Amino acid sequence: MATAAAAGRCGARPGPYTAGLSLASTEPAAAAEPTGAGTPAGPATAAPRRRAWARVGRRPPPPVLVPHEVTIDGLDPAHDGVTIAHLSDLHVGSLTPAEHVRAAVELATGAGAEVIALTGDYVCWRKHEVGMLREQVAGLAARRVVATLGNHDYFPSAAGVVRALAGHGVDVLRNRHTTLAVRGRPLHLIGVDDPVTRHHDLDQAFAGVPASGTRVVLCHCPEQAPGLAARGADLVLSGHTHGGQIFVPGLTDRIIDRMGKRYRRGFYAVAPDAAGGGAGRRAQLYVTPGVGFSGVRVRAGDGTRAEVALFTLRAGVPRAG
Ligand SMILES: [Fe+2]
């Protein structure tokens, strides 16, 4: 079933069906609407099947820039108005057209944000995708560009992905932080390594982060958000879900629920879990549907459109003490 495959695609190897879709993607590009997951196949003849395959092989709608204002209680007033662009799940490879990735890179750079944050899954499965990544992210630029890894980055070569990104000045934060002085006040960017492949270490990622200052956390998988809130995250940026990639009302959410997952796309106010001994605070989590394709070149339904998110931080209620 397409939706089940989409919901779990970040952990599933492409099968024969996927291989066929890759072949279809070599067709000449044409404008296309997202294909519905439940589109009836019509009579069981060869011709309608070929047409259905062609539809999913067409050029997908390009990523769009999606602006958000994020109000954070306790935010340093100096950081009111600071902007962060967020890109995730580029999935460079045979399913994601290079121009699709390039459009996202240009949107992020063109937004003029102080920071660009990348939250993993830059490639799909294969070694040669690392070279493609190096070419396709060229020109990504902001005052600071930071990244963390996703599960797919470990499949071909995490070290290769890190080198490809670092070659463009991207600071890959693997369970560590970096601090940027923005308007004279500290903005801490904390990167948690991929939790899906169990490379994450939340305590190590937060080690040495000063108590004062704004804390923006990058973590590929959103399910870590309660633990990140417990450690004092203000804003958590995640991807991984692709918004479900194919969203069928009443079905996709049920499947995600059964998988024990809590977050699909958009904003969540996340309460801290017990990890911080109750010292944490409610964090804002944003889960982007990301940019690229995994398993099938289709994004369809609510909350799945490829995007670059652009956050403007806003100061909320001052924090006591
Ligand atoms: Fe992904």
Large-scale geometry: globular
Structural class: alpha/beta
By CATH, the architecture is named 4-Layer Sandwich
Instruction: Give the name of the CATH superfamily.
Output: Metallo-dependent phosphatases
Largest sheet composition: 6 strands, mixed
Tell me, rounded to a whole number, the average pLDDT: 84
Number of domains: 1
Alpha-carbon Rg, integer: 19 Å
In DSSP terms, counting alpha (H) and pi (I) runs of 4 or more, how many helices? Answer: 9
Strand order of the largest sheet: 1-12-2-3-4-5
Order of helices and strands: HHHEEHEHEHEEEHEHEHEEE
Low-confidence stretches: 1-55
Just give the CATH class: Alpha Beta
Oligomeric status of the shown chains?
single chain
What ligand molecules are bound, each kind once?
Answer: fe (ii) ion
Strands, count: 12
Distance between the termini: 52 Å
CATH fold label: Purple Acid Phosphatase, chain A, domain 2
